[in-house]
């Protein structure tokens, strides 16, 4: 009898377990939330309108990092990125000692890199695009970079734009300070010999890989050391008017090259002057000796990226022929000199009003941006794209609600809202998924404004600040996310008029009917 009761209990438990398993197969995990009672979850596709716009010029003197080099994209053609940088004194009125004579001058800007685990002094470069050589040249610039805008009575920061290279080149002064017609970024560590505190000996220092070039001793001897005690070095205001900056120009070699992202404010970035001077004796028994010393010039707060390059005619024509009235077959988005996509949800006003009357519980709303693989074969595609409120130039509420942010790993940050590029087994891009559930819910159920959305390429989705633009066509675009200027990568996405109906851009809404 007891055995029968135990058997009955076991059988009942198994039935319950199997019921849970069966039910679990019907559950849907949409937007990271399990929806109980899946029979009431419905799905609807809503038409949207999407088109592309070329961004002709973007403010670049507020960027956290800057591009340098030449990069050829199979779709968008060649982009050349150069840098005009202020130079500043670490401290005003520096002293170099008696009879200072330069030995060498080194410009150094560290690459973004990672140390190889369990390997001493081995590194893997990051944020390098392409692998072909390019030409790099350095010049003294006579163009004065204002920190504040005279047109605003010096109350606002001066804006400098990516299309001003022709202007800057008019102010190049003197001979070329450095030139390498076959430069290619290297992962080799930098070995330098730094003077000790006493200046008699040197220490060997091994540093991570960097853009490193030797500049002419004669120029900096006359420009810096020979000016010891002069008014030109008294303070940074005087100095920035005296040595107004360096223009680092990049040019393609055989219509190709490589491009690197640099942080000119990084530790180790700057121009170091190595020199000898007469060191006075510390007691009567010592004699005057020649000692070694170094002096560093930093890059100033005003650093401007310039971009040179033209889209192929067929791409420009495709962009210009698209618009808000009908959308586009393809969406062209690219960083640097750039293009972006504009998306309008609920293109049909009558449909929007109908949806508002339904009182749906929106479980998930998403946009799947499919890569046009017929056009992107062999292209190095961006891992992330960024969707934002274009009307107000701010991030969407779904971005804010995503708790998966990571300052240390931006590539995998905020991926519930905006996924990384999904790829085929051969590495080619498939799609990006943008979940905008709360944004859509607010439009349908809280009477929020149906704002235009902007879509750009981003190498760091954690940075959502904006930069001013000028010269954009139509659509009154006056600002864009500044991170789009930090990468030369681009892609082509299926638009709302794509011939491939399965990959055509639509808003997908998963919802539950309510009893209201």
Secondary-structure class: mainly beta
Largest sheet: 11 strands, antiparallel
Proportion of beta-strand residues: 35-45%
Number of helical regions? 8
Unreliable segments of 5+ consecutive residues: 1-39
Instruction: Give average pLDDT, whole number.
Output: 89
How far apart the termini lie comes to: 53 Å
SSE arrangement:
Blueprint: H1 2-26, E1 28-30, E2 33-35, E3 41-47, E4 49-54, E5 57-58, E6 66-73, E7 77-89, E8 98-110, E9 112-115, E10 123-126, E11 128-129, E12 134-141, H2 165-169, E13 172-183, E14 190-195, E15 202-207, E16 210-215, H3 217-223, H4 236-242, E17 246-252, E18 259-262, E19 270-279, E20 289-308, H5 313-321, E21 330-334, E22 339-344, H6 349-356, E23 361-370, E24 385-389, E25 394-395, H7 397-401, E26 422-423, E27 429-435, H8 437-445, E28 453-457, E29 466-470, E30 479-481, E31 490-494, E32 506-512
Structural notes for this entry:
This protein is mostly beta strands. The chain folds into 2 domains: 43-56 and 311-512, no CATH class; 77-308, no CATH class. The chain is 15% helix and 40% strand. It has 8 helices and 32 strands. The chain has helices at residues 2-26, 165-169, 217-223, 236-242, 313-321, 349-356, 397-401, 437-445; strands at residues 28-30, 33-35, 41-47, 49-54, 57-58, 66-73, 77-89, 98-110, 112-115, 123-126, 128-129, 134-141, 172-183, 190-195, 202-207, 210-215, 246-252, 259-262, 270-279, 289-308, 330-334, 339-344, 361-370, 385-389, 394-395, 422-423, 429-435, 453-457, 466-470, 479-481, 490-494, 506-512. Strands 6, 7, 8, 11, 12, 13, 16, 17, 18, 19 and 20 form an 11-stranded antiparallel beta sheet that branches. A hairpin with a 4-residue loop joins strand 24 and strand 25 (394-395). The longest helix has 25 residues, at 2-26. The chain is elongated. This is DUF4270 domain-containing protein. Pfam families: DUF4270. InterPro entries: DUF4270 (IPR025366).
């Amino acid at each position: 009898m007891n055995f029968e009761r135990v058997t009955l209990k076991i059988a009942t438990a198994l039935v319950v377990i199997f019921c849970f398993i069966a039910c679990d197969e019907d559950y849907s995990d949409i937007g990271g939330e399990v929806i109980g009672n899946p029979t009431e979850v419905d799905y609807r596709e809503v038409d949207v309108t999407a088109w592309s716009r070329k961004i002709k010029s973007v403010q670049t003197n507020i960027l956290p990092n800057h591009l340098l080099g030449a990069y050829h994209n199979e779709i968008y053609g060649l982009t050349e990125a150069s840098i005009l940088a202020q130079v500043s004194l670490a401290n005003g009125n520096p002293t170099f000692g008696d009879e200072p004579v330069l030995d060498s001058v080194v410009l150094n800007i560290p690459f973004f890199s990672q140390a190889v685990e369990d390997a001493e002094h081995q590194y893997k470069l990051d944020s390098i695009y392409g692998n072909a050589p390019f030409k790099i040249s350095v010049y003294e610039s006579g163009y004065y970079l204002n920190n504040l805008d005279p047109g605003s009575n010096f109350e606002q920061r001066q804006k400098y734009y990516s299309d001003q290279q022709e202007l800057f080149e008019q102010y190049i002064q003197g001979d070329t300070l450095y030139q390498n017609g076959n430069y290619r970024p290297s992962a080799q560590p930098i070995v330098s010999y730094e003077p000790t505190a006493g200046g008699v000996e040197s220490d060997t220092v091994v540093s991570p890989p960097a853009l490193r070039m030797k500049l002419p001793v004669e120029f900096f001897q006359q420009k810096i050391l020979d000016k010891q005690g002069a008014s030109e070095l008294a303070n940074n205001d005087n100095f920035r008017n005296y040595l107004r900056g360096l223009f680092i120009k990049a040019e393609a070699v055989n219509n190709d090259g490589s491009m690197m992202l640099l942080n000119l404010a990084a530790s180790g970035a700057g121009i170091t002057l190595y020199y000898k001077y007469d060191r006075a004796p510390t007691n009567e028994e010592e004699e005057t000796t020649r000692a070694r010393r170094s002096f560093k010039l930093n890059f100033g707060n005003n650093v401007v990226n310039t971009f040179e390059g033209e889209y192929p005619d067929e791409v420009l024509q495709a962009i210009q022929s698209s618009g808000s009235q009908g959308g586009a077959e393809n969406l062209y988005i690219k960083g640097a000199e750039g293009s972006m996509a504009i998306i309008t949800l609920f293109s049909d006003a009558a449909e929007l009003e109908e949806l508002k009357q339904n009182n749906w519980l929106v479980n998930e709303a998403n946009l799947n941006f499919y890569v046009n693989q017929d056009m992107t074969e062999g292209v190095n595609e961006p891992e992330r794209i960024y969707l934002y409120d274009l009307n107000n130039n701010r991030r969407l509420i779904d971005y804010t609600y995503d708790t998966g942010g990571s300052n240390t790993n931006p590539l995998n940050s905020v991926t519930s809202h905006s996924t990384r590029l999904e790829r085929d087994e051969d590495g080619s891009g498939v799609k990006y998924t943008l979940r905008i559930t709360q944004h859509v819910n607010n439009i349908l159920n809280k009477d929020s404004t149906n704002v235009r959305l902007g879509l750009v390429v981003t190498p760091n989705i954690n940075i959502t600040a904006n930069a001013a633009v000028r010269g954009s066509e139509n659509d009154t675009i006056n600002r864009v996310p500044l991170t789009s200027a930090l990468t030369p990568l681009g892609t082509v996405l299926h638009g709302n008029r794509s011939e491939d109906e399965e990959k055509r851009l639509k808003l997908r809404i998963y919802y539950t009917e309510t009893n209201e």
